[in-house]
Design brief:
This protein is an all-alpha fold. It is built from six helices and no strands. The chain starts with a helix and ends with a helix.
Length: 140
């Protein structure tokens, strides 16, 4: 189970699926309940599976790249591009009445969310790193 936790963020995936599915349902509701539910179902399922993985990717990128600014930039841009691109593909396939409007929440909320997640993850990793002992600092 620890391996799954290292690769997938279940809590964030569930919250994201409910939030994004609800937003996309509201966007598509004027086309009728079946259209709204189709779009919401696609968005919810996509968000659940992909967001859980993408957030872990964001964390790993934020922690793996030594230079802080570059790490935060990469950890924000790559997940944002993947998420917006995949969401666009999902909604432009048959079945979403308002595909561009359905992508808009991801486009607007994704990058700032990934940036915040990357900063949080980077800070947590920096706090866990052992600091140099007084003897090592004096020798430098």
């Amino acid at each position: 189970m620890a391996g799954l936790r290292d690769a997938f963020d279940l809590r964030s995936a569930t919250i994201g699926a409910l939030l994004m599915g609800g937003l996309v349902a509201a966007i598509n509701l004027r086309h009728g309940l079946p259209a709204a539910l189709t779009a919401a179902g696609k968005q919810g399922a996509y968000t659940f599976f992909i967001a859980g993985l993408i957030l872990k990717l964001c964390e790993r990128l934020a922690q793996a790249i030594p230079e802080r600014r570059r790490a935060l930039l990469v950890a924000t841009l790559i997940p944002s591009l993947v998420t917006v691109g995949a969401t666009s593909l999902v909604h432009h396939l048959r079945g979403t009445a308002e595909p561009w409007a359905s992508v808009l929440p991801t486009l607007l909320m994704g990058p700032p969310s990934f940036a915040a997640w990357a900063i949080k993850s980077r800070r947590a990793a920096e706090a866990r790193r052992p600091t140099a002992s007084a003897g090592e600092e004096a020798a430098s």
